[in-house]
Amino acid sequence: MAEVTVENSITPDQKGNVLSRFVWTYVFATDHKVIGLQFLFSSLIWFFVGGFLALAVRWQLAWPWSDMPIFGHMLFAESGGQMSPGFYNMLFTMHATIMIFFVIIPILAGAFGNYLIPLMVGAEDMAFPRLNMMSYWFMWPAFVCIILSFFMPEYGAAAGWTSYPPLSVFQGDAQSLWLLAMVFVGISSMMGSINYLTTIIQMRAPGMTMFRMPMTVWGMFITAIMQAFALPVLTAALLMQLSDRLLMTGFFLPENIAVNNGVATSGGGQVLLWQHLFWFYSHPAVYIMILPAMGMVSDIISCFSRKPLFGYRPMVYSITAIAGLGFIVWGHHMFISGMNHTLAMSFMVSTMLIALPSGIKVFNWIGTLWGGKLQLTTPMLFCVGFVSMFVIGGLSGIVMSAPPVDIVIHDTYYIVAHLHYVLFASSVLGVLGAIYFWFPKMFGRMMNEKLGKIHFFLTFVFLNGTFFPMHFLSRMPRRVADPYIYEGLKDLLPLNQFMTICAIGMGLTQLIFVANFFGSMFFGAKAGRNPWNANTLEWTTVSPPPHGNFDVQPVVRRGPYEYSHPSTECDFFPQTETS
Amino acid sequence: MNRFWSVLFLLVPILGIATVLMAMYGVAPLESAWLPKSLSEAGDTIDQLFNGIHLLSAFILAGTVFTIGWALWRFSDRGDSNEKALYVTHNTKLEIAWTVIPALILIFLAFFQMKSWAENKMDRPTVTVDGVTDFKPPMVMVKAKRFGWEFYYAGDDGVVETEDDIFVENLLVLPAGEEIVLQMESRDVIHSFYVPELRLKQDIVPGMTQFVWFNAREEKEIEIMCTELCGWGHYMMKAKLDFVSRAQFDAWIEEQKSAYSPEFKNAAELSALLRDSNKSFAAKFSNDARPQLKLKIN
Ligand code: HEM
Ligand SMILES: [Cu+2]
Ligand SMILES: [Cu+2]
Question: What is the pTM of this model?
Answer without folding.
Answer: 0.91
